[in-house]
Design goal:
By secondary structure, the protein is mainly α. The protein is built from six helices and no strands. The longest helix is centred in the C-terminal third of the chain and has 27 residues.
Length: about 120
């Protein structure tokens, strides 16, 4: 049942993104940023934690989950370190995702060279 819940919630996030792409003039980059900001906002008002408990990876893997993790990390680090926690907290909790993105980007840049356009 966990897989079904994760699939349904993650699928809803994808459906919303696809509707935004099809029905608005928003660029994919703006939609991605909106998803991260939505995760931060929903985490700040206390709605994302119950969604994470219900859907697991369906809520934790999409960009909204990344925004939620950033905000949660900053909040915890500010309580521990003070002002320095604003910078350190988000990086500490999302280091795995950031590292994976950098490594995948590096591998893709090595495997696929940009062709000359002239």
């Amino acid at each position: 049942m966990e897989y079904v819940k994760a699939f349904l919630i993650g699928g809803c996030f994808c459906l919303i993104g696809q509707i935004l792409i099809d029905k608005t003039s928003l660029t994919p980059a703006r939609i991605l940023v909106s998803y991260v900001v939505a995760g931060v906002f929903l985490g700040a008002i206390g709605l994302y934690e119950p969604l994470m408990e219900f859907a697991g990876a369906g809520a934790g893997v999409p960009l909204t989950g990344f925004g939620y993790q950033l905000a949660r990390g900053v909040k915890e680090a500010v309580n521990e370190m003070g002002f320095l926690g604003i910078v350190m907290g988000g990086l500490k909790t999302t280091a795995g995702g950031i590292t994976a993105a950098i490594i995948c980007g590096l591998i893709a840049s090595i495997c696929f060279r940009d062709a000359d356009k002239s």
